[in-house]
Amino acid sequence: MKKNILATCGLLFCTSLLHAQTTEEVRIDFENQNYKALGVYDTWLKSPFRSQNKQAAVLEGNVQVVSNIDKNYDEILKATPNASNNVLGFQRSRFGSNTFGARIDLKQPFALTKETKYVHVMIHKPKAGRTMLIGLGKRTDRKGQSVDTEQFWELSTREVEPNKWVDAVFPVKGAGGIEIHSLVVVVDCEDTNGMKDDFLAYIDNIVVNNEAFTATNREDYPMNYSKDAKCSRTDRGLKGISLGDQTFNLYSDITTSTPAYTYLSKQSFLAKPGETLNPAVQYKGVWMHSYVYLDLNNNGRFEPKVEGGQIVPNAGNELLAYSFLGGEDENSGYNSAGTEISGNGRNTLVMPEFTLPSDLQHGFYRMRYKVDWNSADAGGSIENNNHILNNGGGAIDVRLNVHGDNVKIYQGALNGKVVAEDGTELNGISIPFGKPYTIKMKPEHGFNFSGLKVRHGYNLTGDSISHGTYQYVDELIPRERFNADGTFTLPAEMIDGDVSLEGIFIDAKTALTYEVYFNNEFVYSTVVNGAKTGAVTIPEGLARDYVELTADKQTITSLPATVRINATWTAPMKVATPADTTWYNLKVSNQPRWVSSGNYTPNVYFIDESYITTDYALWALTGNPYSGFRLINKAMGPTMVLASASPKGSAKAGGNTYATLLPADNLPAGYTSDWTVTISPNDDEGFYICNPEGFGLNYRADGNLAYWTGGKDAGSTFVPTEVKKTSTGIHALIFQNDSATTYDLAGKTVSKSHKGVVIRNGKKMIVK
Predict the structure, then answer these.
(1) How far is CA 330 from its chain centroid?
(2) Are the C-beta atoms of 369 and 292 separated by less than 8 Å?
(3) What is d(CA 373, CA 240) in angstroms, rounded to the nearest whole number?
(4) What is the pLDDT of residues 315-342, one digit of tens each?
(5) For the stretch 104-118, what's the b/e string if a residue is b when 16 or more beta carbons lie within 10 angstroms of its beta carbon?
(6) Residue 340: its pLDDT value, please?
(7) Burial of residue 78, with CB atoms counted within 10 A of its CB: 0-12 exposed, 13-18 middle, 19 or more buried
(8) Alpha helices, DSSP H, located in 598-649
(9) What is the per-residue pLDDT for 746?
(10) pLDDT for position 738
(11) Could you tell me if 234 and 211 are in contact, meaning their C-beta atoms sit under 8 angstroms apart?
(12) Residue 7: other Cβ atoms inside 10 A
């Protein structure tokens, strides 16, 4: 047993830097015992900190309330981050897994809801990197479920800087009906294989609220105003950005809910070293200037090197393009090409092209587009008479993917290999950048595979985030997305840098496959590995709102095996079938308003009761709760479906992202027509209509069917009323059971020549 190295150590606590709280439900500060108990926790089942075979754990773990070690004034924050007397000390053991952490049992549980909440935890540790929060609790509708059931694992929204108090923020949400009884703070979630010594970390001031922003903002790439600020005027505003023919159109119009700063953290422009690029902004308004920055040295700051309105040569300048900068007299100045500009010529947002350094290393770089008036400051001018927000300016950050023609692909796994479709070993071979690539799973004898872990980007063995900028992304490809022959085509967006593949191979004798049928058609499947014989338990992952699940057998007597799951729909709006297409009016719960395509197409509007008898106000639900539902309008016909882009903004934004009716076979990039129907607590007969990200459509005050990304309420609740039934008219589009349509085992449309096990005409078959 290790010596308790916490005995003489201390910690801190501070409330002065916290943002104003909203819907605060939990607050733990360690000055008083406002918690139930303290301990340690490890998700690794064989951890020495867990009991094995009902025997005591080998190691106890060191965690206790101690004195504050750091009450220092922070020069960057201009405040003392944490001035409390007592904090929680925790010994990060090298014998624990990467999910070993300090466990705090709550006096009162809090609800994990479908709306995102934010858990703030002050952390002080000697090692940089990501942290994790694990929530332990139970579902209220599961009698006998342990309060130690893991309900969420969530990484902090940013890295925790070493040797400083940092307010780590964890966004958490669930399916609803979940109580969180304990929080596990994983101060270091890196692999422990290279960890030689334990270290001390400190935890304080745990708060659950609706505030997404950290209280210790020593942030990378700062703005000179709050990054959650909204536009202060509607006649001016930054709507989008482009780089050559690559464009991100973010906001259709500018309102007082439009963000004045946006970070496209997972999106990127593409470029090559030495390439000449033409940047531009989409801006509503005139008499402003545009600027583009690139963090060439990846140090978390944009560093402009300009004098008298002109770029200083050979000084490491990171302000690469601008439409105007003045010297001492703003009546005249220059653009980034050195062209002199004065008078009315200053009314320009047109930036000259710029050329990337030819020796720039491949990787992801942070890039900023800013609209401001005559200011080289990447954070924006905040002078009293020239404030960026008062002027209608703003900024958008995005990644720049600097790449070559080819990337490397690797694989590594136990009990099998991942190879190219033709069997080529993936040992660092070159493949074309940005092109789909087909791989094949090759398990050893006696093994099968349950999925594939894909890491793609740059610096794959390092930290995934550098100064808040993603360098690579980890994705899991489940077994059901593979073809029957074990092949899978990595989409082009995964070949955005080097690629590392880890096959998940399992003992083939322990596989239990669940196949879900909806209206007697196969729609979804999942494989449970390491299964045992005995009573059938339907996996929680198959649960959907308004769906009752029943298995075709009660007991598994041998493995491998397959269980058929029949899904019965119980919602107040029926799903159409060829023999019974039921049309409904859709009323918003808290208003006498009904959804209609009306004469306002392509946007969908709300009407009053006098028009609800028209075909424009009649809607039918098609599809299934696994691959998604579609909504069609009787007046518009079966080829048009309700669709939308992803809503932009945060809090109560999203009102400018409208639902529209578009051709089902020709949706614009970024649009979805697949919806989930979920239970609404605001009306027993109503439901939410949500996009794949979980944002609900909403009745907006301007009469549009749009979004409220801040939550769901009665305005997001739709109550259906049955109007009429038909037996013809929409069969060709939505029932997906005609002989011309073929699906793979995940319920996705594939070509007729697709090889492997497929679904056609509601039946499984093998195409060789």
Answers:
(1) 43
(2) yes
(3) 18
(4) 999 999 999 999 777 899 999 999 999 9
(5) bbbeebbebbbbbbb
(6) 95
(7) exposed
(8) none
(9) 45
(10) 37
(11) no
(12) 10
Tell me the β-bridge partners of 202.
89, 124
Which residues of the chain fall short of a pLDDT of 70?
1-25, 76-78, 212-213, 217-218, 384, 599-602, 648-653, 726-768
Q: How many CA atoms lie within 13 A of 282 on its CB side?
A: 15
What dihedral angle (degrees, nearest 10) is formed by the CA atoms of 48, 51, 57, 63?
A: 80
CA 297/CA 303 separation, integer angstroms: 10
The model carries a pTM of: 0.53
How far is residue 273's CA from residue 404's CA, in Å, rounded to a whole number?
Answer: 8
- Phi, psi torsion values for 752, nearest 5 degrees: -65, -30
In order, the DSSP letters of 692-728 are TTSPBEEE-TTSBEEE-TT---GGG-EEEEEEEEESS
Taking residue 575's Cβ as centre, other Cβ atoms within 10 Å add up to 22
DSSP for residue 332: E
Name the 3-class secondary structure at 344.
helix
Cβ-contact 227, 111 below 8 angstroms: no
CA separation for the pair 255, 566 (Å, rounded): 47
Give the pLDDT confidence score for residue 599 in this predicted structure: 65
* Unique residue bearing structure tokens 């270290």: 199
> Taking Cα atoms as reference points, which of 751, 740, 242 lies closest to residue 483?
751
> Per DSSP, what are the bridge partners of residue 427?
410
Half-sphere exposure of 460 (CA within 13 A, CB side): 19
pLDDT at residue 554 in the model? 92
Provide the token pair at 447: 């093994």
